[in-house]
Amino acid sequence: MTHEQFEVLSNQAVAACGVAYFLAFLAHLGQWAAARRSAPAEAEVAQHATASVGGGTSVAERPVAAATVPDEPERMQLLGRVGVALTVVAAAVHALAVVTRGLAADPVRVPWGNMYEFTLTGTFFVVLGYLLLYKRFGLSWLSPVVTGFVLVVLMVDVLALYEEVVPLQDSLQSPWLVIHVVAAVIATAAFTIGGMCSVLYLVKSRWEQRTDAAGRARGGYLARLPELAVLDRVAYRTHAFGFPIWTFAALITGPIWAHYAWGRYWGWDPKEVWAFITWVVYAAYLHARATSGWKGSSAAVVALVGLATLWFNFVGINFFFGSGSQHSYAAPEPTAVVLRLDG
């Protein structure tokens, strides 16, 4: 295949995986809609808790059983399996889009030379991380959030950030680029998944306070989310995984690559400064968790501040400081480029 054909194939794969992510998102929406219809209200649980069972033993005497979340109905399980299967298919096509994007360049190069390519690769790693952790942490509850997030980001990537394939600049012709960007993408994916858990923690915490104050019965998606302690723990573990990788990417391989490309390890470039700010915020988050016992809402807020600095480093710096940064090659062109599917 020619380089032009690889570019067309990459564009077609992006469109195909977008359709698959959309179908997966719909399946997961149906899954949780089925849960909303089938989940008994707390009032019913309380009513059954006072009813006698069998030979006169009341459920009230068994608080664990009364508080147990009901099993997923068959329809909900089916839609969940369909959604995960579609996500796996979408991730495979997504990987094809990333690989063929690199093969489309002449000479062949790594597929992250600009914002479009980094976003394409970053969203793939978000889905990959979610799928790898799916069984370990039982992430069925995160499925609609991940698929919806990736779908929206890919749409923005194609409509606003797309650029035609061009050779890498001289400063990017380095093996340290591969090491630096791979580490940064993995850490970004971990922080993004952890940020999703932190958002869900804050939303559920607020929702529980309001429902308790109003005396309303709990049901639907938020009711079937894990306990707040579980959401907090999953967020902490994903952040703890991503932090040393981000340290390696931002404070070790980044300066080494800068020295190779520009003859200095640190130059107070806007992107370098914000990468360090991101590192400081996540270091504060993990330090507070480990030494001061910060948990719950306070920890979730700090984690989201870190996520905001992370994405501002990627998006904001390129748009607002691109002309004054040595990383300006990553900024999108001022004119829009139409995504071609037919060559």
TrEMBL record:
InterPro entries: Cyt_c_assembly (IPR002541), Cyt_c_biogenesis_CcsA (IPR017562), Cyt_c_biogenesis_CcsA/CcmC (IPR045062). GO terms for biological process: cytochrome complex assembly. It is a multi-pass membrane protein. Pfam families: Cytochrom_C_asm. Keywords: Cytochrome c-type biogenesis, Membrane, Transmembrane, Transmembrane helix. It comes from the Bacteria. The chain crosses the membrane at residues 12-30, 82-103, 115-134, 141-162, 177-203, 241-260, 272-288, 300-321. One of its GO terms (molecular function) is heme binding. This is Cytochrome c-type biogenesis protein CcsB. It comes from Nocardioides aurantiacus.
